[in-house]
Specification:
The protein has 5 helices and 10 strands. By secondary structure, it is of the alpha+beta class.
Protein backbone atom coordinates (compact mmCIF):
# COMPACT_ATOMS: atom_id res chain seq x y z
CA UNK A 1 0.00 0.00 0.00
CA UNK A 2 1.36 3.40 -0.95
CA UNK A 3 2.03 6.18 1.54
CA UNK A 4 -0.64 8.74 0.69
CA UNK A 5 -1.34 12.39 1.45
CA UNK A 6 -3.60 11.36 4.32
CA UNK A 7 -0.62 9.84 6.13
CA UNK A 8 1.53 12.91 5.46
CA UNK A 9 -1.02 15.62 6.14
CA UNK A 10 1.20 17.88 8.23
CA UNK A 11 4.05 17.63 5.73
CA UNK A 12 1.80 19.15 3.09
CA UNK A 13 0.83 22.22 5.11
CA UNK A 14 2.63 25.60 5.03
CA UNK A 15 4.05 26.83 8.33
CA UNK A 16 5.66 23.54 9.39
CA UNK A 17 8.87 24.29 11.29
CA UNK A 18 10.50 20.87 11.63
CA UNK A 19 10.12 17.19 10.91
CA UNK A 20 11.66 14.93 13.53
CA UNK A 21 11.87 11.25 14.44
CA UNK A 22 14.31 10.04 11.77
CA UNK A 23 17.45 11.91 12.86
CA UNK A 24 18.56 9.75 15.78
CA UNK A 25 22.08 8.37 15.81
CA UNK A 26 22.20 4.59 15.71
CA UNK A 27 24.38 1.77 16.95
CA UNK A 28 26.08 0.60 13.78
CA UNK A 29 28.20 -2.41 12.92
CA UNK A 30 28.40 -3.80 16.44
CA UNK A 31 28.43 -7.22 14.82
CA UNK A 32 31.92 -6.47 13.50
CA UNK A 33 33.26 -6.66 17.07
CA UNK A 34 32.22 -10.32 17.18
CA UNK A 35 31.99 -11.77 13.68
CA UNK A 36 34.63 -12.22 11.00
CA UNK A 37 33.11 -11.39 7.61
CA UNK A 38 33.59 -13.53 4.51
CA UNK A 39 31.92 -13.51 1.11
CA UNK A 40 29.90 -16.29 -0.46
CA UNK A 41 28.73 -17.10 -3.98
CA UNK A 42 26.33 -19.96 -3.25
CA UNK A 43 23.07 -20.65 -1.43
CA UNK A 44 24.83 -21.88 1.72
CA UNK A 45 28.29 -22.50 3.11
CA UNK A 46 29.50 -25.51 5.09
CA UNK A 47 32.51 -25.87 7.35
CA UNK A 48 33.59 -29.26 8.68
CA UNK A 49 35.26 -29.95 12.02
CA UNK A 50 38.08 -32.49 11.79
CA UNK A 51 39.22 -34.81 14.55
CA UNK A 52 42.98 -35.43 14.37
CA UNK A 53 44.96 -38.01 16.30
CA UNK A 54 45.23 -38.80 20.00
CA UNK A 55 48.44 -38.88 22.02
CA UNK A 56 51.13 -41.23 20.75
CA UNK A 57 51.62 -44.48 22.75
CA UNK A 58 54.94 -46.07 23.62
CA UNK A 59 56.14 -48.60 21.06
CA UNK A 60 57.77 -51.67 22.56
CA UNK A 61 61.02 -52.99 21.13
CA UNK A 62 60.28 -55.17 18.13
CA UNK A 63 56.57 -54.49 18.45
CA UNK A 64 54.26 -53.11 15.82
CA UNK A 65 53.51 -49.42 15.60
CA UNK A 66 50.02 -48.23 16.54
CA UNK A 67 47.72 -46.73 13.93
CA UNK A 68 45.12 -44.09 14.63
CA UNK A 69 42.19 -42.81 12.57
CA UNK A 70 41.30 -39.23 11.74
CA UNK A 71 37.73 -38.33 10.89
CA UNK A 72 35.16 -35.61 10.44
CA UNK A 73 33.08 -34.86 13.54
CA UNK A 74 30.40 -32.28 12.67
CA UNK A 75 29.44 -29.76 10.00
CA UNK A 76 28.47 -26.13 10.51
CA UNK A 77 26.10 -24.85 7.83
CA UNK A 78 25.43 -21.20 7.05
CA UNK A 79 22.18 -20.78 5.11
CA UNK A 80 21.85 -17.27 3.73
CA UNK A 81 18.66 -15.33 4.36
CA UNK A 82 17.23 -12.65 2.09
CA UNK A 83 16.45 -9.48 4.03
CA UNK A 84 14.32 -6.96 2.17
CA UNK A 85 12.00 -4.03 2.84
CA UNK A 86 10.17 -1.61 0.56
CA UNK A 87 7.78 1.33 0.56
CA UNK A 88 5.90 3.33 -2.03
CA UNK A 89 4.64 6.91 -2.14
CA UNK A 90 1.62 8.04 -4.09
CA UNK A 91 2.13 10.32 -7.05
CA UNK A 92 -0.03 13.01 -5.49
CA UNK A 93 1.92 13.01 -2.21
CA UNK A 94 5.16 13.57 -4.10
CA UNK A 95 3.63 16.38 -6.17
CA UNK A 96 2.15 18.23 -3.19
CA UNK A 97 5.10 17.99 -0.78
CA UNK A 98 6.13 21.52 0.26
CA UNK A 99 9.42 20.69 1.93
CA UNK A 100 12.46 18.54 1.21
CA UNK A 101 12.04 15.46 -0.93
CA UNK A 102 9.91 12.73 0.60
CA UNK A 103 11.86 9.99 -1.13
CA UNK A 104 15.24 10.92 0.30
CA UNK A 105 13.82 11.24 3.81
CA UNK A 106 12.16 7.84 3.86
CA UNK A 107 15.05 6.17 2.06
CA UNK A 108 17.14 7.04 5.12
CA UNK A 109 14.49 5.43 7.30
CA UNK A 110 14.68 2.35 5.10
CA UNK A 111 18.45 2.19 5.57
CA UNK A 112 18.00 2.49 9.33
CA UNK A 113 15.61 -0.48 9.36
CA UNK A 114 17.93 -2.64 7.29
CA UNK A 115 20.93 -1.79 9.47
CA UNK A 116 19.15 -2.54 12.72
CA UNK A 117 17.82 -5.84 11.40
CA UNK A 118 21.41 -6.95 10.76
CA UNK A 119 22.43 -6.10 14.34
CA UNK A 120 19.44 -7.98 15.77
CA UNK A 121 20.21 -11.09 13.72
CA UNK A 122 23.87 -11.00 14.71
CA UNK A 123 23.08 -10.61 18.41
CA UNK A 124 20.57 -13.49 18.19
CA UNK A 125 23.52 -15.91 18.03
CA UNK A 126 24.49 -14.89 21.57
CA UNK A 127 20.94 -14.26 22.78
CA UNK A 128 20.22 -17.92 22.01
CA UNK A 129 23.64 -19.18 23.15
CA UNK A 130 22.22 -21.28 25.99
CA UNK A 131 19.30 -22.76 24.05
CA UNK A 132 19.76 -26.14 22.39
CA UNK A 133 16.75 -25.60 20.15
CA UNK A 134 18.33 -22.47 18.66
CA UNK A 135 21.80 -23.93 18.36
CA UNK A 136 24.11 -21.93 16.12
CA UNK A 137 26.54 -24.79 15.63
CA UNK A 138 26.63 -28.22 14.04
CA UNK A 139 27.27 -30.60 16.93
CA UNK A 140 23.69 -30.46 18.22
CA UNK A 141 24.52 -28.71 21.49
CA UNK A 142 23.81 -25.11 22.44
CA UNK A 143 26.51 -22.64 21.52
CA UNK A 144 27.54 -22.37 25.19
CA UNK A 145 27.08 -25.82 26.65
CA UNK A 146 28.50 -28.23 29.23
CA UNK A 147 28.04 -31.17 26.86
CA UNK A 148 29.65 -30.55 23.49
CA UNK A 149 30.18 -34.05 22.07
CA UNK A 150 33.69 -34.87 20.90
CA UNK A 151 35.86 -37.93 20.23
CA UNK A 152 37.36 -37.55 23.71
CA UNK A 153 34.03 -37.16 25.53
CA UNK A 154 31.84 -34.20 26.36
CA UNK A 155 33.49 -30.80 26.60
CA UNK A 156 32.19 -27.44 27.81
CA UNK A 157 32.45 -23.74 27.10
CA UNK A 158 30.00 -22.84 29.85
CA UNK A 159 30.90 -21.77 33.38
CA UNK A 160 30.23 -24.82 35.56
CA UNK A 161 28.31 -22.72 38.08
CA UNK A 162 26.39 -19.82 36.58
CA UNK A 163 27.59 -16.54 38.05
CA UNK A 164 27.22 -12.81 37.61
CA UNK A 165 30.09 -10.72 36.28
CA UNK A 166 32.72 -10.23 38.97
CA UNK A 167 36.41 -10.83 39.49
CA UNK A 168 35.98 -14.45 40.57
CA UNK A 169 33.73 -15.52 37.68
CA UNK A 170 35.86 -13.74 35.09
CA UNK A 171 39.07 -15.33 36.38
CA UNK A 172 37.46 -18.78 36.42
CA UNK A 173 36.32 -18.42 32.81
CA UNK A 174 39.85 -17.44 31.76
CA UNK A 175 41.23 -20.48 33.60
CA UNK A 176 38.68 -22.75 31.90
CA UNK A 177 39.53 -21.31 28.48
CA UNK A 178 43.20 -22.12 29.07
CA UNK A 179 42.19 -25.75 29.61
CA UNK A 180 40.27 -26.24 26.36
CA UNK A 181 41.17 -29.24 24.21
CA UNK A 182 40.60 -30.30 20.61
CA UNK A 183 38.29 -33.08 19.41
CA UNK A 184 40.79 -35.74 20.50
CA UNK A 185 41.45 -34.21 23.90
CA UNK A 186 44.80 -32.59 23.08
CA UNK A 187 45.50 -29.28 24.81
CA UNK A 188 45.16 -26.24 22.57
CA UNK A 189 46.67 -22.79 23.08
CA UNK A 190 43.55 -20.64 23.24
CA UNK A 191 43.19 -17.44 25.24
CA UNK A 192 40.41 -15.02 25.98
CA UNK A 193 40.62 -11.86 23.89
CA UNK A 194 37.49 -9.79 24.44
CA UNK A 195 34.66 -9.50 26.95
CA UNK A 196 31.22 -9.14 25.34
CA UNK A 197 28.57 -7.65 27.60
CA UNK A 198 25.10 -6.07 27.52
CA UNK A 199 24.78 -2.40 28.37
CA UNK A 200 23.75 -3.23 31.95
CA UNK A 201 27.21 -4.62 32.78
CA UNK A 202 29.43 -1.88 31.33
CA UNK A 203 30.17 -0.18 34.64
CA UNK A 204 30.91 -3.44 36.45
CA UNK A 205 33.22 -4.47 33.62
CA UNK A 206 35.12 -1.19 33.83
CA UNK A 207 35.72 -1.63 37.56
CA UNK A 208 36.67 -5.31 37.34
CA UNK A 209 39.02 -4.98 34.37
CA UNK A 210 40.61 -1.55 34.72
CA UNK A 211 40.95 -0.81 38.43
CA UNK A 212 44.55 -0.74 39.66
CA UNK A 213 43.65 -2.80 42.71
CA UNK A 214 41.10 -5.54 43.31
CA UNK A 215 37.49 -4.45 43.39
CA UNK A 216 35.31 -4.78 46.50
CA UNK A 217 38.05 -5.74 48.93
CA UNK A 218 40.04 -3.85 51.55
CA UNK A 219 43.15 -5.87 50.73
CA UNK A 220 45.89 -4.03 48.91
CA UNK A 221 46.05 -6.69 46.15
CA UNK A 222 46.84 -5.98 42.53
CA UNK A 223 44.21 -6.40 39.83
CA UNK A 224 45.60 -9.59 38.28
CA UNK A 225 43.41 -9.46 35.18
CA UNK A 226 44.69 -5.99 34.33
CA UNK A 227 48.33 -6.56 35.28
CA UNK A 228 48.62 -9.86 33.38
CA UNK A 229 47.22 -8.37 30.18
CA UNK A 230 44.24 -10.69 30.11
CA UNK A 231 41.49 -9.84 27.62
CA UNK A 232 43.81 -7.59 25.55
CA UNK A 233 40.93 -6.33 23.37
CA UNK A 234 39.04 -5.11 26.44
CA UNK A 235 35.29 -5.11 26.88
CA UNK A 236 32.74 -4.31 24.20
CA UNK A 237 29.08 -3.47 24.77
CA UNK A 238 26.53 -4.96 22.40
CA UNK A 239 23.30 -3.00 22.72
CA UNK A 240 21.25 -5.78 21.13
CA UNK A 241 21.92 -8.42 23.80
CA UNK A 242 18.67 -9.08 25.65
CA UNK A 243 19.85 -10.90 28.80
CA UNK A 244 20.94 -8.27 31.32
CA UNK A 245 23.39 -10.48 33.25
CA UNK A 246 24.72 -12.95 30.65
CA UNK A 247 28.26 -12.28 29.44
CA UNK A 248 30.75 -13.90 27.11
CA UNK A 249 34.46 -14.07 26.41
CA UNK A 250 35.52 -14.26 22.78
CA UNK A 251 38.67 -16.33 22.31
CA UNK A 252 41.28 -16.41 19.57
CA UNK A 253 40.23 -19.87 18.36
CA UNK A 254 40.17 -19.78 14.53
CA UNK A 255 37.01 -20.36 12.48
CA UNK A 256 34.63 -19.20 15.17
CA UNK A 257 32.04 -16.45 14.74
CA UNK A 258 31.40 -15.86 11.05
CA UNK A 259 29.19 -13.72 8.87
CA UNK A 260 28.86 -14.69 5.22
CA UNK A 261 27.91 -11.83 2.93
CA UNK A 262 26.10 -13.36 -0.05
CA UNK A 263 24.81 -10.16 -1.63
CA UNK A 264 25.62 -6.66 -0.31
CA UNK A 265 22.77 -4.27 0.27
CA UNK A 266 21.25 -2.89 -2.91
CA UNK A 267 18.62 -0.21 -3.31
CA UNK A 268 16.31 0.39 -6.23
CA UNK A 269 13.41 2.62 -7.19
CA UNK A 270 10.86 2.53 -9.98
CA UNK A 271 7.61 4.13 -10.96
CA UNK A 272 4.43 2.13 -11.34
CA UNK A 273 2.78 2.90 -14.68
CA UNK A 274 -0.79 2.13 -13.58
CA UNK A 275 -0.85 4.14 -10.33
CA UNK A 276 1.99 6.61 -10.77
CA UNK A 277 3.30 5.61 -7.34
CA UNK A 278 7.05 5.58 -6.73
CA UNK A 279 8.37 2.38 -5.18
CA UNK A 280 11.62 2.05 -3.25
CA UNK A 281 13.26 -1.12 -1.92
CA UNK A 282 16.39 -2.37 -0.19
CA UNK A 283 17.64 -5.95 -0.26
CA UNK A 284 20.61 -7.94 0.96
CA UNK A 285 21.55 -11.56 1.70
CA UNK A 286 23.73 -12.81 4.53
CA UNK A 287 24.03 -15.34 7.33
CA UNK A 288 25.47 -15.38 10.84
CA UNK A 289 26.73 -18.42 12.67
CA UNK A 290 29.55 -20.22 14.48
CA UNK A 291 31.80 -22.99 13.22
CA UNK A 292 33.98 -23.89 16.24
CA UNK A 293 32.32 -23.38 19.64
CA UNK A 294 35.74 -22.89 21.21
CA UNK A 295 35.62 -19.30 19.98
CA UNK A 296 33.45 -18.32 22.95
CA UNK A 297 32.98 -19.06 26.64
CA UNK A 298 29.89 -17.84 28.43
CA UNK A 299 27.53 -17.86 31.37
CA UNK A 300 23.87 -16.79 31.62
CA UNK A 301 24.50 -15.06 34.94
CA UNK A 302 23.33 -16.15 38.36
Amino acid sequence: MAISRAQLAKELEPGLNALFGLEYDRYENEHAEIFDEETSDRAFEEEVMLGGFGTAPVKSEGGTISFDDAQETFTARYTHETIALAFSISEEAIEDNLYDRLASRYTKALARSMAQTKQIKAAAILNNAFSTGASAIGDGAALCSSSHPSLSGNQRNLLSTAADLNETSLEQMLIDIAGLTDERGLKIAVRGMKLIIPKELQFIAERVMNSNLRVGTADNDANAIRNMGMLPEGAVVNHFLTDTDAFFIKTDAPNGFKMFNRSPIKTAMEGDFDTGNMRFKARERYSFGVSDWRCVFGTPGA
